[in-house]
Structure formats: C-alpha cells, structure tokens
Write a structure and sequence with these properties.
By secondary structure, this protein is mainly β. The chain is 1% helix and 44% strand.
C-alpha cells in the first residue's frame, strides 16, 4: 500500500526547462548541491545559475531540512482550466488569469509564470513584476530577482518590478550587503549597488561576492586583496587567491598552499594545506583532507577531531554527516539506488533509499564519536531536529543526540508534521507523537501528513479528514470523490471530475470548476 496520495507534480515549487527555483534547504542538501534547482516535475530541471562565487574550493552544502508545511505561504491555489494555469484567491476569484502554460511557487506573495519557453514573475494580486520573456529566473535573494535571456545575458529586477541591472552582463552575483559582483562582457568584474549604481569605477580581473562585509578582488598586480562596502582596498593585494570570509576567517593561497587570515589581514593559520584540501569554517571548525581520512581543525589551526572516514560533511549545529562505502545490497527487496526527494515530504519504508548504492550515512559529534551509526540500514538527513533511521528492516526516529524518539519498529514512517508522525504498522497507518506513543491507532489504508491541524486519510473506499485526536470533524458528501491536503484554511476536493475547495467546516467555498489544482505544497492528483 502506498503511504499517501501520489503527486502529479512534486511541490508547487516547480521547475521546467529554464526555470530555476530553490528547494527548501534540506531538500537541496540531500542532493549535496549548493545551488540546486528544485525537484523535477514532468519537465527537466535546468542547470544551476551562474554566480560570481568560485566553484572549485567551495565546501559541500549541508543544511538541515525544514518541513515544507512550515514555509511561509499565502492562502491561494494554482489552478488549471483546460490547458492554461492561473491562481485563485480565497474568495474564489481569479487573482491571476488562467493564461499561462505553467505556474510555480516563487515567494510568499508571488509566483513564477511560463508562457511558451520563457518565464516571468507575477504578484498574487496579478501585478506583473518581471515580464515573461526570460529563459531563466534565479531564486529570490535579498529582494532581487536575477534573470537571463535567450542569449544568456544576465540582469536583475527588484521586487517592485524595477529593472536595476540591464540584461546585458555575463554574470550577476547574489546581492550581499546590498552589493552585487557583476561580470561584464569584457570578462572584467565590477560591483553594483542594489539601486543600480556602480560602487566605484574600479575594474577587477576577478572578484567574488561580499561576505561579512568584505569581498576578495584580483587587482592589476595579479594578486588578491579585499575591499570593504565603500570599495576601499583594506586588506592589501598580497595573495595568489582568496576566498570570501566565513566565521571571521578567509582562506588565502600563497605559493600553492592555503592558510587563513582574519579581517585585519593577520595570518592566523599559516599556509600549509594543498589546494582543495581545506574547507571554510563552519560551526567553529574547518574540515581538512589528509592522506586517507578527513579531520577538523579549530580557529587556531589545531587538529581537534581525527575521523576514520574519507567522506565527511562540515559540522552543522554540533553534528557532521559521515559516510562509508559498503557492498551493494538489497533494501526491502529493491536494489538500493540514488533517489531524490520526489514529494518534499519523504516517506521512508520498504524499497526506499535516498543515497547511492554503496553508501551508508551516519553522524559524529564534536568529540568525533559516532552518535548515529553508519551500521544502521539507513539514516536520513535531519529535518526539524530529527532523523529517520532503519534498523534491522524497521523504521524509527532519532534526535540530534542519537536517542530514539520513536523506537525502530515500523514498516514505514514519515517525518513529524504538526507534531505527529505517520507510521505504518503492518498494512495500516496511524500517527505517533513526539513522545513515541501512539496517538491515532493504525487503521487507515492511506494517510497524508497533518497540516492546519487536519490530515486526509483513506479507510477502505472512504476518504475523509481527521483531527489530531483521530476524530472526523465533519462528514463529506458522497459527491466528493477525492480530497487533498489543507493549506492556509482550504483543502481541494473533487466533485464530478472538477476541483474546488472546502474550508475547515467542510463547506464548499470555491465551486468545483478546475481541471487540476496545486497548493503551495502539494498537487491534488491522487490515488
């Protein structure tokens, strides 16, 4: 039995060829991609957008997942009428006319729209912020929308719809401290303020985005130094390469060795590491590559953790992910495979795996102790302070100390939503609280996670909603043949082949007139 209704598109944060949209942090983290595009829909995702950051020596991204249900969202839904998409307001009126080939979630109060092969941004009141004429649109960052055209020229708009940088550059970096690093057509670099004005008239052979108030630049001397937000060179150009500051320190290269300087330019860790063998500081520690395994140093350069792993992620909130290679095996009768999150709210159970065929994930703390064992059948990444684990073919949940929140005894399990986790015991589904106790007995054939205090469930042929006590707060008429999840007070329902919406009382508030509906989190294609 499936654990939930299938989704015709993954999240409403969708992509198509040319559309760039960031997934929630942990979903990108699962793929270990720093600038990953969102989960695929039926169309292909595009490549990550160009930034002015150096790619070669960037630490692996690893951010704890946050539940999709906790994302900021406005009460609206994307709807399809015939072959075109629009967006409906809670009143039932079309806030955005059904005139687009695709609509994707973009920000709390705006969506990305596609007409043909080009994209734009429209506010939920129907105001066009960015015309739908661009090949790619990057995720919103610092209230700036970076776009590129069919010729791969890049520019930027603000959220008021004003074009702050013309679409004529090779690359536009993310705005940090109100400033963007921009690569001109002559391949030189300059800096622009968020109002579209040049920071200074200085031109650089190479430059990277501001971080912690400073930006590394390569001057005409061929050496790297740092400018402040006025454009003044405050750390002299004396380095063969320099990275952005992180946690008060920056990696710098001298004679093909890397060390760290502070913001005064003082060398606090002398150059001693080969290129690519040391990462930025994160959570107070920097990872270094040794002959066989990884280690961690503190901000004095002292080695404080020696691991026995060759595949390690930087520390985050006191834990570092570690991986070990194992022989290819079977999980639940299926050959393990590299699978990305398809729904944004993963179900873990029979035949499910999210890392490669030969890889086991675990976690170490800052003493180097393995608190979640790589010997487990499977360990998920952390989301909302917990991780899902599979031990001897049974699923449970652990906290960041490695203690069981839910003992591994279930056939399948979900993350917590509204403080309840869906669990499969035998062939039936129920819900468990954060204390590990059963709150709603397993008696359902399928379940959705709780959102807005309600969960959609199926028992036999009947589909209905339950509250967190397991009680059905209202009955649905037989004319409703399908249901979706509540979001901001509304849930999609299907009546006579068309989709409309009900409120928390079960009253139809938007008549069933649409062929397909998407909320901010989920689609309504089901069963």
């Amino acid at each position: 039995m499936k654990s939930r209704w299938k989704l015709s598109a993954t999240l409403a944060a969708m992509t198509a060829t040319g559309m760039l949209y960031a997934m929630p942090a942990g979903f990108a983290a699962e793929a270990q991609m720093q600038n990953a595009p969102a989960t695929k829909t039926s169309a292909q995702t595009s490549s990550a957008a160009m930034t002015a950051q150096p790619a070669a020596q960037t630490a692996p991204a690893h951010k704890e997942m946050q539940p999709a249900a906790q994302q900021t969202s406005k009460p609206f839904a994307v709807v399809r009428a015939g072959k075109k998409w629009g967006a409906v307001a809670p009143s039932g009126s079309l806030a955005i006319p059904a005139a687009y080939d695709q609509i994707a979630s973009y920000s709390a109060d705006a969506v990305a729209v596609r007409q043909g092969k080009t994209w734009g941004i429209v506010r939920m009141d129907g105001t066009v912020i960015v015309p739908a004429i661009y090949k790619t649109i990057q995720p919103l960052s610092a209230d700036v929308i970076i776009v590129s055209d069919a010729k791969d020229k890049v520019g930027a708009y603000n959220t008021a719809g004003k074009q702050i940088l013309p679409v004529e550059y090779l690359a536009v970096g993310p705005f940090s401290d109100g400033i963007s690093c921009v690569q001109r057509n002559d391949k030189k670099y300059v800096f622009y303020r968020q109002d579209g004005s040049l920071l200074t008239n200085d031109v650089y052979d190479a430059a990277y985005s501001f971080s912690e108030g400073l930006a590394p630049v390569k001057t005409t001397s061929g050496k790297y130094g740092f400018i402040d937000t006025t454009g003044t060179l405050i750390i002299p150009a004396a380095y063969d390469w320099a990275d952005g500051f992180q946690e008060g320190l920056s990696r710098v290269e001298i004679k093909k060795k890397l060390g760290f300087i502070d913001k005064s330019g003082t060398m606090v860790i002398p150059p001693q590491y080969r290129l690519g063998d040391v990462w930025d500081f994160q959570d107070g520690l920097a990872m270094v590559k040794e002959k066989k395994y990884r280690a961690f140093i503190d901000k004095t350069g002292a080695k404080v953790i020696q691991t026995r792993y060759s595949d390690v992620m930087p520390f985050e909130n006191g834990l570092a992910e570690v991986r070990r290679e194992v022989k290819v095996g079977l999980l639940g009768g299926f050959l393990t495979s590299a699978v990305s999150f398809a729904t944004g709210v993963p179900t873990f159970g029979v035949g499910t795996d999210l890392i490669g065929e030969k890889t086991k994930r675990g976690y170490i703390d800052k003493t180097g102790a393995e608190i979640i064992s790589t010997k487990n059948d499977y360990n998920s990444i952390f989301m909302d302070g917990v991780a899902l684990v599979r031990v001897k073919s049974k699923w449970g949940i652990v906290d960041r100390k490695g203690a069981y929140v839910i003992e591994p005894k279930y056939k399948a399990i979900h993350f917590f939503y509204d403080d309840l986790a869906a669990v499969q015991d035998g062939d039936k589904w129920g819900f468990v609280g954060r204390d590990g106790k059963i709150v709603i007995e397993p008696k359902y054939d399928e379940v959705h996670d709780f959102t807005d205090g309600l969960a959609a469930v199926r028992q036999g042929t009947k589909k209905f909603f339950i509250d967190k006590t397991g009680r059905a707060p209202f009955l649905l008429p037989n004319s409703i043949t399908d249901i979706g999840m509540f979001n901001d007070g509304f849930a999609p329902v299907k009546i006579n082949g068309k989709w409309g919406f009900i409120d928390h009382t079960g009253t139809v508030v938007i008549p069933p007139t649409y062929d397909e509906v998407l909320t901010h989190q989920y689609t309504t294609d089901s069963l």
